[in-house]
Amino acid sequence: MKKETAIKIVLFAFFTVVCLLILIPFYAVTIASFKPGEDLIRYGLNLKFDLSVMNFDNFVYLFTGDHAYFTWFFNSVLLTLVQVTLTLLVSATVAYGFSAYEFRGKNFLFICVLLIMMVPFEILLLPLYTLTNNMGLMNSYSAIILPGIAGAATIFFFRQYLSGIPKEIIAAGRVDGASEYGIYLRLILPIMKPSFAAMAILNGMNSWNNFLWPFMVLSSEHKYTLPIGLKTLLTPYGNNYDLLIVGSFFSILPILALFLAFQKYFIDGMTAGAVKG
Amino acid sequence: MFKNFLYSQKVAPYVFVLPFVLVFLIFWVYPLLSSFGMSFQKVTLGQEAQWVGIDNYTKLMSDTIFFKAVRNSGVYMILTLLILIPFPMLFAVLINNKFMWGREFFKSSFFFPALTSVVVAGTIFRLMFGEMEGSLINSLLGVFGVEPVKFLKGQVTGFIALVALASWRWMGVNMLYFLSGLKNIPDDYYEAASIDGASAFQKFTRITMPLLKPTTIYVLTISIYAGLAMFIESMMLWNGNNSPKNIGLTIVGYLYRQGIEKNNLGYAAAVGIVLLLITMVINLTQLAFSGMFKKED
User: Which of A8, A19, A255 sits opposite B99 (nearest CB)?
Assistant: First the structure.
């Protein structure tokens, strides 16, 4: 019995230390958001909890100041919602096609899905950039949404999920005279609901934090998403720390709130790819 | 008539997968082929492209900055593999232990960093590794009497910051992968081993490690890919794509510099093709060695 208690204490102590190390950056940015930007420039980002210099000025500036932060914030919210909704619907439809039918070229097409997951997206940046330019889609959200609308990982996950649904449902639907599309829309989509949560989280996180491609495509400030907007606050000519730090801190809050509310789905979504099938 | 055709069981599957086929052709096959084609041309946005044969590739082979970028990406990949596979695996096994208190709490806290965007995480780490005496890391080193370090000005110290950032963001995610792998190992195996008198260490090396192999291969594959294609982390730490003496330049960073910043798209495309080849060769070798291509089921 004594040995068990000892193990418990050692394990707990060990994880507490690691956990503190992991939480230090969050703590640092949290207290920095209550300090004047000047303090940060002079002393650097540190762990000093000094009430004499801490105040709510940055937050007042965040909510009432003359800047585009909340334009970026709502752009990000809007883009994330639209992108997640479209990607989930399109990917689920494609996954159903792969799962419910046998057809010529099916295996070949599914290998193409896997191929997309194997090649770094970054290689396609330049040709996609010129393609977007030629299509006249520069500085538009369509250019961000379209290339990923049939997301390979999402299709893969949905297909896995659908393989657990009995084929009898489809057969029964046909007997009842439902059309092929009616079966999908009325019988299958409702059963897929649980799998949507995990994929909504995964895609939502990617979309909310997406940076490089939107950064290359979007050029006008009023269309920026939050990560791009925050990035523009860092300039070679001096940094707007007053807004940058409090803005960074505030950008973590919504996703943290969602995480705490839907933890299970976050974990399912993140580990979906690792499930061997 | 057309409606009947569209609604037939033969045609319906193609209608379902059509969006994928379109996206695949337009946004994947076409760009990949055009990237390949561009790598044999001199391309400048707004001007007629010129066929130059393998000039871009021969130039690349004697481009010392490109080799610097390849080395940086390679070293970064290896360092992240050395940290982000064994430690998350060990943490997963420990946290899964039946004597663990507060398991769910620790799992969540480990996962927190993955919720931040690279931009936010990069900004925080850039400031933490600032060169002032009072910056977080330097102030901690100061406690041990170490003089302030200019982290982002040196090759080794710059990489410490870079790898610290990657480890911080991905430790929890990789741990979750290993935890979900552990769930698939039946308890009976451990009970049987206990009856045979196996030690905890033996159980780990003889049961846990071999049975975590599929998870390990998955994590290895995505980490190789992510390591070689890393760019924004470096861009955020050095506040742009220009680090002193290119200490933070990566392959994708060089592709971006040549393609977007210098409008030298053909040359940049060649960089991309080389990156594709490196990624493919490393990953296929790795998968072949780990026996992923052997017939299963």
Answer: A8
3 state SS of A221: helix
- Interface confidence, given as ipTM, is 0.88
**Is the CB of B118 less than 8 angstroms away from the CB of A227?**
yes
- pLDDT 10s digits, A2-20: 788 888 899 999 999 999 9
pLDDT tens per residue, range B201-248? 898 999 999 999 888 988 898 899 899 999 999 999 998 888 999 999
A202 burial level (CB within 10 Å; 0-12, 13-18, 19+): buried
Of chain B residues 7-26, which have a CB less than 8 A from chain A?
A: 7-10, 12-17, 19-24, 26
Measured CA to CA, the distance from residue A250 to residue B168 in angstroms comes to: 20
Burial class (CB in 10 A: 0-12, 13-18, 19+), B289: exposed
Walk me through the domains of chain B, giving residue ranges and CATH numbers: 64-289 (1.10.3720.10)
Is residue A107 predicted with pLDDT exceeding 50? yes
Contact yes or no for B236/B81 (Cβ under 8 A): no
pLDDT of residue A105: 92
Nearest neighbour of B272 by CB, restricted to A123, A252, A271: A123
In A, which residues are within 8 Å of B121 by CB distance? 25
Name the residue of chain B whose CA is nearest to A32's CA. Answer: B124
B21 contacts on A by Cβ (under 8 Å) = 109
Cα A271 from Cα B219, distance rounded (Å): 10
Predicted local distance difference test score (pLDDT) of residue A264: 78
DSSP H helices, A135-176, are: 142-145, 152-162, 168-175
The β-bridge partners of B50 are: B42
A-chain residues near B13 (CB < 8 A): 97, 100-101, 103, 106
- The type of residue at A268 is D
Per-residue pLDDT averaged across B159-183, rounded?
93
Does residue B272 contact residue A126 with C-beta atoms inside 8 Å? yes
**Residue pLDDT, tens place only, A188-224:** 998 888 888 888 888 888 899 899 999 999 999 999 9
Decide if B277 touches A, using CB distance below 8 A.
no
Tokens 């419910």 correspond to what residue?
A100
Mutation choice for A interface testing from B9, B15, B18, B28 by most A CBs within 10 A? B28
Is B28 in CB contact (< 8 Å) with chain A? yes
Apex A213 CA angle, A212 and A215, nearest 5? 65
